[in-house]
Write a structure and sequence with these properties.
Blueprint lengths: L7 H8 L4 H9 L3 E2 L10 H9 L4 H8 L11 H8 L2 H6 L5 E5 L14 E3 L6 H9 L1 H8 L7 H21 L8 E5 L19 H5 L3 H27 L5 E4 L30 H8 L3 E4 L23 H9 L1
Parallel strand pairs: 2-3, 2-4
Antiparallel strand pairs: 1-6, 5-6
Helix pairs in contact: 3-5, 7-8, 9-11
Length: 324
């Protein structure tokens, strides 16, 4: 799960960046790049809860009752759906080992149901906010105290997780249990902390660069790491692993982006119906690429091309129907 990774046409129109070289690499590796895909929801919690539970959130509201579901403003319902969800519950009885790679965002930092959790030096979101805006936190950062430097930790965490994911892929063997791996990378999501070649940016360095250059550098870094991991997964699985590279949302339109250098938290509430068509496209048009093994489905028919405009709520619906 690549957070806020924009679709190719949006990268061209809004960020003056041509991502076709990476997309061509994916297609050469057998991926179907869904170049008209859009998110079902505009925020991570809603989007991921829908994807991992194979349904729209309205269905969860119907099941819970209107008082606790459809009309609720309680995000805890969504956070629970991000941890105890249908995908892993469907795969565990089939013998799958469940690995969870978390991010700095608290709802996906760890999963108590996973057989393996991979993360590094995560600070709860509220504590990060408190440190960022308190005098002691500012003084500690100014003094160079590493445990208070969330930007440096985020840079190192991204590299740590990609390395562990590569190691997990390389260690795969024919005798190992089948694996379901969920990895949430807050990349190219802000804060902007990385250059394309993996160097950590200081706050002053990031602020001296344009928003476009900061975002595209993190996207390029993400592309490089994804190419490395995909190559390892396909080599060790002999092309039989299902691989999903998918964004949950696009970048925030610039006028709503907020502080993208220190914490990278969501912007204030937005009146979505008042956004321009261009702004909505930037937020909703997502990167979505899926590799499906070149084999017949469980029903005996060849796997067909995926719809270019398929949305994430249908990802696991399709996979479970065809392969399980």
């Amino acid at each position: 799960m690549l957070d806020r990774y924009a679709r190719g046409d949006v990268l061209r129109s809004h960020y003056d960046f041509d991502n076709s070289a990476f997309l061509t690499t994916l297609r050469g590796a057998g991926f179907q790049v869904l170049d008209q895909s859009a998110a079902n929801y505009q925020r991570t919690a809603h989007s991921l809860a829908s994807t991992l539970n194979l349904d729209y959130l309205e269905a969860a509201g119907d099941a819970a009752g209107d008082a606790a579901g459809k009309r609720s403003s309680d995000w805890v319902i969504l956070y629970q759906a991000l941890e105890d969800y249908k995908v892993w519950r469907a795969l565990k009885p089939l013998g799958y080992e469940f690995s969870h790679f978390g991010g700095w965002w608290t709802p996906t930092a760890f999963n108590r149901f996973a057989d393996r959790n991979v993360n590094w030096k995560v600070t709860p979101t509220f504590q990060r906010f408190l440190w960022a805006h308190s005098l002691p936190g500012r003084l500690a950062r100014a003094a160079g105290w590493r445990p208070m430097d969330d930007r440096r930790l985020q840079c190192e965490r991204a590299k740590f997780k990609f390395d562990r994911l590569a190691e997990l892929a390389a260690a795969e063997s024919e005798k190992a249990k089948p694996k379901f791996v969920f990895a949430h990378f807050l990349m190219p999501h802000p804060p902007f902390v990385l250059t394309a070649d993996g160097r950590c940016l200081s706050l002053a360095q990031a602020r001296a660069r344009s928003r476009r250059d900061n975002y595209i550098d993190q996207l390029r870094y993400t592309n490089n790491q994804l190419a490395r991991v995909v190559k390892l997964i396909q080599a060790q699985s002999k092309g039989q692993a299902i691989i999903i590279l998918q964004a949950d949302e696009g970048p925030w339109p610039e006028r709503f982006a907020g502080d993208e250098h220190t914490l990278g938290l969501d912007a204030n509430p937005v009146q979505w119906t008042r956004l321009s068509a261009s702004e909505l496209r930037e937020k909703m048009a997502i990167f979505n690429a899926i590799y499906l093994p070149d084999q017949k489905t469980a029903q005996g028919s060849p796997a067909s091309a995926l719809p270019a405009a398929m949305t994430p709520v249908n990802t696991f619906r399709l996979i479970f129907r065809r392969w399980f």
